[in-house]
Structure formats: C-alpha cells, structure tokens
Amino acid sequence: MGIVKKSAEVVSPLLENRLEKTARLVISVFMILIMGFLTMVSFLHTTGMDITPDVESVSYHNDNLYINILLLIFSMALCYVVMPLLKNIPLWAELAFIAVWTIIIGLLWVYSSQSAPTEDSWRVTNASLCFAKDDFSPLDERYFKDYSFQLGYVFFNEVLIRIASIFGEVTDLLFLEALNVVFLAVTNIGIILLNIKIFSDERIRHLTVFLLAFCFQPILFSTFLYGIIPGLMFAVWAVYFEVAYFKDNKIIYAILSAVFIALAIMIKSNYNIVLIAVIAIALVKLFSRKKYLYDLVYIILCAALALTITPTVKAMYENRSGIDLGDSVPYVSWIAMGLNEPILSGLAPGWYNHTYTISNFEDNNFDASEASKDSVANIEERLGYFMSNPQYANDFFYEKTVSQWNETTYQSIWTNQVRGQYAEKGAFAAWVCNEGEGAVSGFMDIYAQLIFVGVLAGVIACTRRKDIFATILPLIILGGFLYHLISEAKSQYAMPYFILMAGFAPYGLVSIYDLLAKKLGKIEWISKLFGFPKQETFTESKKAIKNE
Fold first, then answer.
1. By Cβ atoms counted within 10 A, which residue in 177, 191, 316, 522 is the most buried?
2. Is the Cβ–Cβ distance between 257 and 297 less than 8 Å?
3. Which residues pair with 46 in a beta bridge?
C-alpha cells in the first residue's frame, strides 16, 4: 500500500499540472498577441480626448517612433538604477510610503479640482443622498428602472453618507472623492502584497512600489464617483485572498475572497470579469489539489454571493420604497451597442449609443425579453456585415481598441475638465486641466508605453514560469480586453485594467533586467551602474522555489 500511495503522489501531480500548464500557456499566448499589438500601436500613435460639448470626442495623433524608443530606454534605465537602491527598505516602510504618497497627492488633487458629479455620476450619488434621508423619489424616475444594477453603488454610497452624517450634515460629496483616494491607496497595497505572494522576489516588490507611485491616472480619476475605484479595491483583495487561500490553505481567506468579489460586483457589475477569472483559476487548481470539497465550496460560494448580491440590493430598495422597479435593460443590449457605430460624430466605434439600449428598451414597452430578441437580431446582423466586409470590420475594431487602450490618460484629465464644480479650481488642478495638460498627458503616455512593454515581457516570461498564479492578473486583463472589444467602449473603462497592468509590469521589467544582467553583466561599469547580480537568479530563484 505504501508503494502504491507513493506512486500516486508522484504521478498524479504531473498529470494534473498538465492542465495548469495548458491554461498558463493559453493565457500567455493570447496576452502576448494583445500586448504586442498595444505596444506597437503606442509607439506609433496616441489617442486623445477632445473637449467638445455634450460628447466624448476622440482624436488620433501620430507619434515619433524614435523619440518614443529613446524615452522607453531612459524609463527602463531609471527603473534599473532605482531598483537596487531600494533593496534595504523594509516592506512596512514601502507600504507606508505608497499609502501616504497616494493619499497626500490624491487629496491635494480632489480639493484642488473641486469636481462635482454630473450626468450618471450625479444620478447615482444624488440617489444615495436621498436614500440616506429615506427619500426614495429617484426610484420613480426611469433611470433606476432601466439601470437597476447601479443600485449597488448607490447602496455603498448611502452607507458612507449615513456614517458621515453622524459627524454633521453632508453638503457636498468631496468626502466621497477623498475616500476614493483612500480606496486607491488600499488597492495599491493589495497589488504589492499580491506580487509578494505570487513572485516572492524583493526586486519585483520594490519596482511595484516605484511604478505605482507614478501611476497618476487613477489619482486624477478619483474625482469621478462611479464605482470604478472602490470596486477595484475589493476585486484586488478578492484575488489576493484567493491566492493566499490556495498557497496557505486557510479557509478564512476563501471566505474573504468570496465576500470581497461579491462586494466588487455589487459596486460595479463589470467586475464580473474578475469573478470569472477567480473561478477559472480555482477550477484549474482544483485538479492539482486533494481538497476537492473545500475548493468546490469556495467556487460555489463565490458564484452564489456574486450572482445574488445585486438582485438582493434591488429587492431591498423595492421593499424600502414600495416601488416595483420591473425589468432593466438586458445585458445583451450593451453588446449590440458595442458592435455598432456611435450616434454622434467624434465618438469612436462602439462608444455610447442609446439607440441600442434605452431606445430599444422603450420601443419594446420596457419588456426585457422582447428587447433582448431585438438586440440579438441586431448582433447577428452586425456579425454578418463584418463577415461580408472584412476591411470595414478591421477598421471598426482597430479604432474601437485604440480609442480605449491607447488613450493613455484614460479620461482622467478630461473628466476634471468637463464635470461640474463645487468651487473654482485651485492652482494645481487649473494648471493640469489647462496649460499643463500637454505635459501631464505626455508623461502619462510615456509611462503607459513602459507599462505595456513590461506587461508584454511579463506574459512572455509566464510561458516559462511554472505557476498558474503568475497569470491571474493577465487573465483579468485579457477578460477586460475581450469584454470591451464586443461591449460598450470607453477609455475610462480600461482604467482598472491599466492599474493591474502597472502592478504586473514589474515582473516583466525584472525579467528583462535579468536577461540584460546575463548578457551585459560582464561589462564592469554597466554592472555597477545597474547593480547587476553576478549570476541570473530570477527565473528559478531560491526564494520562489522555497515559496512553492
């Protein structure tokens, strides 16, 4: 019996790891194609957001390839000079730095911008204010009947407003924008700890802190109250606790992961993409472990909480208000929107077009089933047209893709230029939104190119790294890319995935560092400048092996 058991222990993991290897390679190959495309495009072109009345207008600009390459070399060299200088800084100091840095810069921005909610942001935040006073009149309007999924973020804000009301009357929502900054700081900490858990390489940790400190897009975006940042915070920590559960085998981590992914989806339904990634990784790991019951319960708990939380919030508000919200615009209508041309000139393909959502829903007497049929018919028609007109399809999806992912401010500056204001902008925000816009957006573009290259190198390295968890962030990014390829497009929707890219890019940049160390480490002055180790240790480092 002892011999048979030993044989099973040796053979079984090899067979089960084959599934992990296949999944890892599939994710890596798809991401290599996507990131290769985005990297190439970013060196040749940049998409810009134009200030035009009542429309999110985009424009396309040519870049100087040679200057971009020189700037990339300088950016990478800076990372490699700084990285060894941080080697003696303890983890607690780095976490404290990224939290304090993010909060200070973020609060300075929030109170300088004085940005006030408008359009959909105003509708959801105004409803939160009303509901906190037990005034449910916003539910009488069509907005929350059409978009009942927004009630999760409304509820989240209502809780925060009720807490804030304990300390005095809430007269504006700048405190929610300030909390967005705090949520972003907690997100950054989660990404750093996730990288430690996955890679066990201090260099990656140091570089993650360094790169996140210069990721200014989400800091400027924190003035936009729409659930993207707090939802991402819960999503990142859900991923962290999943990895911790599988690596440390503590049930509490599984419970926290399931609860946090449900909260992320409640706040922003797009984080269903993270749920799919979390469950996909868990299913792959299921067959390389012997804790089938625990793992299945974890998977079921994630799905059950995530699928029920939004309907539960809707039912709660219906019960509190006595108003039946009825059907909402069916999800498939957003796919129809994403496959069509915009209704207004200046918008890119697949950007907002009410014809395929609200108007279609209204034409079908607010019957979700009938509206779905029309949307499906439209999707079939568009797919047929794409098949018959391949050049048009190529141009459509090219423009749709670069309008989102290559708009490297991700509407972080634009949103502060077009939203309402509580008061006149301070000097900081006034400069960024006016004469300093070119400099800030230019820096963001250079930063994004570095991140794209880092992610590309990282997914290439994942083809060799025998750890499925190394691909968990790329899998989420892949899901976001494919989702917005067919669904509604907008560059701000790429923001959470860009933050995850900034968290994953250090792995790729360190892998490039090790390659350079191997090739150039014998040149003494280069070795001293960049602190190259005497031998390449990254791919199969002792720390990584020990951690496994």
1. 191
2. no
3. 61
| 275-292 average pLDDT score | 90
Identify the CA nearest to 434 among candidates 411, 413, 448, 415.
413
- Alpha carbons 238 and 253: distance in angstroms, whole number: 9
- The string of pLDDT tens digits covering residues 486-500 is 999 999 999 999 999
Structure tokens of 89?
A: 């800084």
Residue 321 to residues 309, 315, 324, 325: CA-CA distances in angstroms?
18, 10, 9, 10
> Domain-by-domain residue ranges, the chain?
2-547
Find out whether 40 and 68 touch, Cβ atoms under 8 Å: no
Indicate the angle between helix axes 151-165 and 119-132, nearest 10 degrees.
Answer: 50
Kindly indicate the confidence band of residue 248, based on its pLDDT and cuts at 50, 70 and 90. Answer: very high
Distances (CA, A) of 330 to 145, 317, 323, 341, 382: 11, 20, 20, 20, 18
Task: Please count the CA atoms within 13 angstroms of the CA of 429 that sit on its side-chain side.
Answer: 28
Distances (CA, A) of 493 to 147, 373, 480, 499: 17, 27, 9, 11
CA 353 to chain centre: 23
8 Å CB contact between 474 and 32: no
Q: Span 181-203, mean pLDDT?
A: 97
CB 267 within 8 A of CB 153: yes
- Out of 42-51, 299-308, 524-533, least confident range: 524-533
Which of 481, 503, 491 is closest to 406 using CA atoms? 491
Residue 12 has pLDDT above 60, yes or no: no
- What's residue 542's pLDDT? 42
Q: Taking residues 25-50, what's their average pLDDT?
A: 95
- DSSP output for 185-248: HHHHHHHHHHHHHHH--HHHHHHHHHHHHT--HHHHHTT--SSHHHHHHHHHHHHHHHHHHHHH
The pTM of the full predicted model, rounded to 2 decimals, is: 0.92
Cα 431 versus chain centre, distance: 28
pLDDT at 389 over 90: yes
Q: Do the bridges between strand 420-421 and strand 45-52 make them parallel or antiparallel, or are there none, so unpaired?
A: unpaired
SS3 for 184?
helix
What's the burial of 122, exposed, middle or buried (CB within 10 Å: 0-12/13-18/19+)? middle
Nearest to 215 by CA among 115, 86, 105, 81: 105
Q: How far is the C-alpha of 292 from the C-alpha of 514, rounded, in Å? A: 38
Rounded CA gap, 255 and 353, in Å? Answer: 39
510 by DSSP, 3-state: which? Answer: helix
Q: Which of 84, 76, 74 is nearest to 211 (CA)?
A: 76
Mean pLDDT of 296-324: 96
Cross-strand partners of 48: 59
pLDDT at 53: 64
Residue 105 CB coordination number (10 Å): 17
Interhelix angle for 272-286 vs 2-44, to 10°?
150
Report in angstroms the alpha-carbon separations of 280 from 20, 240, 241, 317, 469: 11, 15, 15, 32, 11
Q: What pLDDT sits at residue 7?
A: 32
What are the φ/ψ torsions at residue 238 (nearest 5 degrees)?
-65, -40
